Task: inverse folding
């Protein structure tokens, strides 16, 4: 691989052992993927920080990086961890777990990461079309490529961390414009409503299953909004490994990408496939969960609107969001209103990456098809997926 003079100095250890090691890893991965050079990035986003998933080996790795003097070179954010840092007792997290999780977060802040702890880092720093990033977290990767038109591969947490402290990534995969061209068209049944985030997630789930790692082209009848695209990309990156979709009216450079694609294979998504994934409306869950990816302000306001129409919900509701969105919602009185309805608003974490959920619920209803995919696998929690508009029906239902 060709390296600039500055990159040579970095890999030869002139800037310390942390940068030397990080450069060696990035170059090695890049070479294995056929990259001929490195590129500068504007923003790194590191996933895989829950003590539940990385345990003691992960904690010691991060500690050693910090002790070697690692410092972030670019704007760098962190994915959710295993608990709400300031409200972990309410989630039933043990003191021992909380201490370990705090330790991990402290090392990352010492290295220079922003106080973020969210899978929606694009709300903290808005990505520009065409800029290069190194992001972990498949949902954020799908969103940033599809909705914002910025460029990142689906990185693992450790590699994104190496990019954070060097400001570099390898030039391969979808950093190359020719690798962003759609190769399969998804034809949606006209009566499938892509604008409901719950349904958009189900579409993503089906697309992920059908397409695997391809690049889907979608021409929805009605342009989906931000929250729907967020739900779609998260699910498509969970049931499949889709890192970019090309959506009419949404994806920057749509016309050029479609022209480049030419004539491509088509596959169909019928309304009955969507309906088959929905539960029987009489099945009552013991938890409703919203906020995977972390809820944005519109979702919080929509939830408030739905709950305003009923008394105290008959089923507990958990919402996970970022501190960034939480603070905006709090300023508008939305958090207070939700808490009055006994909604638990969680920051810094989510039920998928927190031990708080494990085997605790008999049936979780969620508007997130990503959670529908992961909660049974990671937390052994039976889960059903519902459209956003069903929340009122479930939450406001009288229980016998
Ligand atoms: Fe975010 Fe947790 Fe879902 S990290 S995308 S809320 S699984």
Result:
């Amino acid at each position: 691989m060709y390296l600039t003079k500055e990159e040579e100095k970095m890999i030869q250890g002139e800037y310390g052992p942390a940068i030397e090691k990080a450069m060696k890893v990035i170059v090695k991965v890049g070479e294995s993927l056929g990259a001929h050079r490195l590129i500068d990035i504007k923003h790194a986003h590191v996933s895989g920080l829950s003590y539940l998933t990385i345990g003691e080996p992960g904690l010691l790795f991060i500690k050693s990086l910090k002790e070697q003097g690692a410092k972030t070179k670019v704007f760098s954010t962190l994915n959710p961890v295993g608990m709400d840092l300031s409200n972990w007792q309410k989630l039933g997290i043990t003191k021992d777990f909380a201490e370990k999780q705090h330790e991990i977060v402290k090392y990352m802040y010492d290295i220079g990461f922003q106080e973020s702890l969210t899978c929606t880092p694009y709300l903290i720093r808005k990505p520009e079309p065409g800029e290069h990033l190194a992001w972990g977290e498949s949902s954020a990767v799908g969103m940033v490529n599809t909705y914002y038109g910025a460029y990142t591969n689906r990185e693992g947490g450790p590699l994104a961390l190496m990019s954070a402290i060097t400001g570099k990534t390898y030039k391969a995969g979808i950093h190359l414009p020719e690798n962003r061209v759609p190769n399969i068209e998804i034809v949606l049944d006209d009566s499938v409503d892509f604008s409901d985030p719950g349904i958009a997630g189900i579409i993503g789930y089906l697309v992920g299953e059908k397409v695997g790692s391809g690049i889907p082209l979608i021409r929805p009848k009605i342009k989906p909004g931000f929250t729907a695209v967020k739900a779609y990309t998260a699910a498509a990156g969970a049931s499949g490994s889709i890192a970019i979709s090309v959506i009419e009216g949404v994806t920057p450079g749509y016309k050029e990408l479609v022209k480049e694609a030419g004539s491509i294979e088509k596959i169909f998504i019928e309304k009955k496939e969507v309906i088959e994934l929905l539960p029987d409306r009489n099945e009552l869950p013991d938890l409703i969960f919203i906020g995977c990816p972390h809820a944005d302000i519109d979702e919080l306001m929509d939830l408030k609107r739905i709950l305003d129409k009923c008394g105290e919900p008959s089923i507990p509701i958990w919402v996970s969001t970022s501190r960034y969105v939480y603070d905006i919602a709090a300023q508008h009185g939305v958090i207070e209103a939700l808490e009055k309805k006994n909604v638990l608003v969680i920051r810094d974490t989510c039920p998928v990456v927190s031990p708080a959920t494990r085997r605790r619920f008999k049936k979780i209803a969620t508007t997130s098809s990503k959670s529908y995919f992961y909660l049974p696998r990671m937390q052994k929690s039976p889960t059903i997926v519902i459209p956003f508009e069903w929340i009122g029906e479930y939450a406001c239902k009288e229980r016998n």
Remarks:
- The chain has a mean pLDDT of 96.
